[in-house]
Design goal:
This protein has helices at about 5-25, 30-35, 40-45, 50-75, 80-90, 95-100, 105-115, 115-140, 145-170, 170-185. The chain is mainly α.
Length: about 190
């Protein structure tokens, strides 16, 4: 694929990710995505066979971005407890958009399930990556594997629950409180 073709593909995926997050998978048409990406509708089929393929591309982005973030944190911080705290800080950097729209990954997992089940499973891998990273790092602090895994899940549940409630109430304080509790779980470990 040419540079221009790769750029158009990225434009379509970015437009789709934003549309899915803002309006939902079911309410988004290929015409909506093409219009937002400023790509003629007929050209969409050059890059993607279907809306399900676009959903898979969006899910791949979520996984790739999560992998990149975790690698950056691992490279920047040698201490396992600080790595988890750095992850929590990174996740908190998007509080405003999460309060406004919810979590794009969680919404994709839910919305893709009926129409694009493979993309739903792929998007959920981002959560698996986060849980695995936290669990491994907590094991490095001396926690038993089962305890580390349970604590990792608690942290992700705290984050996702905070997003859901903050979004429902339109109150960023709720999410900030969730992050403080997640940090406390790491510190008190």
């Amino acid at each position: 694929m040419s540079k221009r073709g790769a750029m158009r593909r990225r434009q379509l995926l970015a437009a789709a990710a934003n549309r899915f997050w803002q309006y939902g998978y079911g309410s988004t048409s290929l015409a909506d995505i093409a219009g937002d990406a400023e790509v003629p509708l007929g050209n969409v089929y050059y890059y993607f066979r279907s809306k399900q393929d676009i959903a898979s591309g969006v899910a791949d982005i979520f996984v790739a971005e999560t992998q990149t973030m975790l690698s950056e944190i691992a490279d920047a911080e040698p201490d396992p407890r600080r790595r988890v705290l750095a992850l929590i800080r990174r996740l908190s950097e998007s509080n405003r958009s999460r309060v406004e729209r919810g979590c794009p990954i969680a919404l994709a997992v839910r919305d893709f399930r009926a129409g694009a089940p493979a993309a739903s499973k792929r998007a959920a891998e981002a959560f698996d990556l986060l849980i695995g990273f936290i669990g491994r790092e907590l094991q490095r602090t001396g926690a038993r594997p089962s305890t580390a895994l349970a604590r990792a899940r608690e942290i992700i549940v705290e984050w996702q629950g905070g997003i859901s409630l903050a979004h429902a109430l339109g109150d960023a304080t709720v999410l900030a409180e969730s992050f403080r509790r997640a940090e406390q779980r790491v510190i008190s470990q």
